[in-house]
Model the fold of this input.
Amino acid sequence: MNLDRLDRKILNVLQSDGRIANADLAEQVGLSASACLRRMRALEEAGIIEKYVALLDQRMLGRRMDVFVEISLTSQSRETLESFERAVARSGEIMECFLMAGDADYVLRLTAEDPVDFERIHRDHLARLPGVLRMKSSFAIRPVVRRTAIPLDRED
Done:
C-alpha cells in the first residue's frame, strides 16, 4: 500500500493519540468523518496499523531498570534458532528480542524492579532459554530517548 500525505497525517495523529475520536481525527487531517474512517480501516486491513495499545510508564509501575542482554547461541541451526525464538516468545518478562548481525546472535530488552528482581528473571527465564552459549547483561542508567512513533513526515 502506498501511503499518501493524508494517510501519513492520519498515522501521525494516531501515533500520538490512539484513542482520538474519528470526528476529531478527521477534522485534524482535513477529511470528512466517513472518508477518514475508510482510510483508517484500509490502513488496518493492510496491516500498517497493527493494533491499538496503552503505553504504560514502567517506572510508575516499579520497573525502574532496563536491562539489555546479548545472547550467543551454541549453533546457528534452524532448530536452535527456532527453539530459542519460541521460548523467548513465551516469556512475558522479555519486552523485546532482536535477531542480530555481529557479535551477539540476539539482543533482548527487559525491565526489572531492582537487581534482586533481575536475578529472579535471570534464574527463572533467561537461564532456561534453550541453546544459549553465553549471556552478557548491560544495565541502562537512564533512558535518554524513548519513542514509539515512527517518523512519517516525508513529502510525496
Summary: Residues 33-45 form the longest helix (13 residues). The chain has a mean pLDDT of 95.
